[in-house]
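Ticket closed. Logging final result for Helix-turn-helix transcriptional regulator.
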Amino acid sequence: MEKKEYVIHIKLDNLLKQKRMTKRELARQADIRHTLVWEMCHNKTKRLPLDKLAKICSVLQVDIHDVIELVERKESNLM
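Final structure:
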């Protein structure tokens, strides 16, 4: 049986568009670095402190699953 591999996908960019909020405004309201928000929106973040994620969820009034999801890694992404 083939073992599936998963990656975390951050859905923050689409969520901000739905909420009509800029990255800078979210960073200001959540009191977090703008660069962290940018990295999350572009799925470039390597480390995501849980307290920052909680602040983002609080400001956007969403659940954690609205911000991040676990998706199966595509074979083209394996290398």
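The two ends are 21 Å apart (CA to CA). No further action required.
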